[in-house]
Amino acid sequence: MAIVFVPFALFILFAFNSLTHRLCLQTEMSKERQPNVFRTINILITILLISSYIEVSFT
After folding, report:
1. pLDDT band at 59 (very low <50, low <70, confident <90, very high)
2. Which of 8, 42, 44, 45 is deepest in the core (most CB within 10 A)?
3. Which residue windows are transmembrane per the record (predicted)?
4. How far apart are CA 57 and CA 59, in angstroms?
């Protein structure tokens, strides 16, 4: 199961990071604020991916 899930998780993280980058460019966000936005989104997506992996693995 992990063999399939890890590439999927990496793809999801890459997709959300590219969307976050577009958001920062479109809203003309300051350079000081961008790392906080990226960190917050990456932490939340990682929590979501871990919880979905646990639910799929133990169900």
Report:
1. confident
2. 45
3. 38-56
4. 6
Identity of residue 6: V
State the total domains in the chain.
1
Q: How far apart are CA 37 and CA 1, in angstroms?
A: 31
Tens of pLDDT, residue by residue over 15-51, are: 999 999 999 999 999 999 999 999 999 999 999 999 9
CB neighbours (10 Å) of residue 38? 15
Domain that holds residue 13: 2-57
The terminus-to-terminus CA distance of the chain in angstroms comes to: 12
